[in-house]
Automatic annotation (TrEMBL):
Organism annotation: Citrus sinensis
Molecular function via GO: GTP binding; metal ion binding
The protein, known as: EngB-type G domain-containing protein
Entry keywords, A to Z: GTP-binding, Magnesium, Metal-binding, Nucleotide-binding
Highest taxon of the lineage: Eukaryota
Entry-linked Gene3D superfamilies: P-loop containing nucleotide triphosphate hydrolases
The UniProt record lists the keyword Zinc-finger: no
UniProt keyword annotation of Nucleotide-binding present: yes
């Protein structure tokens, strides 16, 4: 029965018809698995072994202005908190990165700032066990939240992480936006639903970011984006 239910979910996913705008976005940004020749034409150096070093600089003057003024500042770790009383003073606007364990939060922070290694990454889920605060120059604070869901930790420890994340997301006065990372292959899970509902109730600004798009075909990236739009519309309604 479980196998039939899973097959039904897969069939439903395959039946999703993405909108033309989503399909165009996927193609314009080369999301999904791509042939080496496509990546080379877009400016990627396919000979590099480290994917995070393989990001062409933007050709958009507006985006480049933002990157130069904000994300090219030095990223420095300055605080970690296991309890809310350890949160640093809310002196800078904060952008937080949330999601399931091993979804790619730390990798995204490194990629945004192109300062590899400042935020620790690992193939072992649950490495981030505290809320970690990083100053990006004097203008912004980036916050790496503990992953929820699967992790190498006791249940009571994972529960404590999740409660800490919920408290931070719903009460932090300097929090300007939460980037909720979703694995493209697996989509929105129950814990993601819970966090989205919490952010809606607490009126916390957030946006969904799909990660690991290179593990699926382009059409499935578009389907997942369409599916997530429908999930958020349902939760918000």
């Amino acid at each position: 029965m479980e196998k039939n239910v899973e097959m039904s979910k897969n069939a439903q996913f395959r039946a999703i018809q993405p909108s033309p705008s989503i399909l165009s976005f996927v193609e314009d940004n080369l999301l999904g698995r791509r042939r080496p020749i496509e990546l080379r034409r877009a400016g990627y150096n396919i000979e590099l072994s480290a994917p995070l070093d393989n990001i062409p600089f933007s050709t958009s003057s507006e985006r480049e202005r933002i990157e130069e003024n904000i994300f090219r500042n030095k990223l420095e770790f300055f605080a970690a908190a296991k309890v809310s009383s350890s949160f640093p003073a809310p002196d800078l606007p904060e952008i937080a990165f949330a999601g399931r364990s091993n979804v790619g939060k730390s990798s995204m922070l490194n990629a945004l700032t192109r300062q590899w290694g400042v935020v620790r990454t690992s193939d072992k889920p649950g490495l981030t066990q505290t809320i970690n605060f990083f100053k990006l120059g004097t203008k912004l604070c980036l916050v790496d939240l503990p992953g929820y869901g699967f992790a190498y930790a006791k249940e009571e420890v994972k529960d404590a992480w999740e409660e800490l994340v919920k408290e931070y997301v719903s009460t932090r006065v300097s929090l300007k936006r939460v980037c909720l990372l979703i694995d493209t292959k697996w989509g929105v899970k129950p814990r993601d639903h819970e966090l989205i509902s919490l952010m809606e109730r607490s009126q916390t600004k957030y946006q969904v970011v799909l990660t690991k798009t290179d593990t699926v075909f382009p059409i499935d990236v578009a389907r997942r984006a369409m599916q997530i739009e429908e999930v958020i519309f349902y939760l918000c309604g």
